[in-house]
Amino acid sequence: MQESWLEVGALFVSAFISSTIAPGGSEAVLAYMVAAGRYDVVELIIVATVGNTLGAMTTWGLGMLAEKKFPVATLLSEKKQKALGMVKSKGIWTLLFSWLPVIGDGLCFAGGWLKLPLLPAIIMILVGKLTRYVVVAWAFT
């Protein structure tokens, strides 16, 4: 029993880290756990989605903090400037794509930088990440 909690906890940590600035492979962890067939797939999807969403919100919060210290957008890296411009032009809806590799973290950071409304940001990020994990789980069941 304790072993299963550790494994599910590892999925949460992997999902959280994968959605912050550090790279990770939460999709591979989820795929392995789904294919193993020892866990409830819905539970795994929820754990991965919550972990990944909290990680994205951490990046979003870092964007808010960075804006306070560095209000000039030209101080950002090219990747973050591109994400900032995309979020400025397209708005909160861009956060649906926060699940994308490389650019997703930048979108979350830009959302925080631009001080997008918190609740809609959480909802958009959660929906995007949930959709990705459902697709991954479906592919490996």
Number of domains: 1
> Order of SSEs, N→C?
HHHHHH
The strand count comes to 0
Proportion of residues in helical segments: over 70%
Reported for the largest beta sheet, the result is: none
Instruction: Output the radius of gyration.
Output: 16 Å
Describe this structure as you would to a colleague.
With 141 residues, this protein is an all-alpha fold. It has one domain. The chain is 73% helix and 0% strand. It has six helices and no strands. α2 (26-36) packs antiparallel against α3 (41-69) and α3 crosses α5 (103-113). It is elongated, with a radius of gyration of 16 Å. It starts with a helix and ends with a helix.
Characteristics:
single chain; 141 residues; mainly alpha; 73% helix
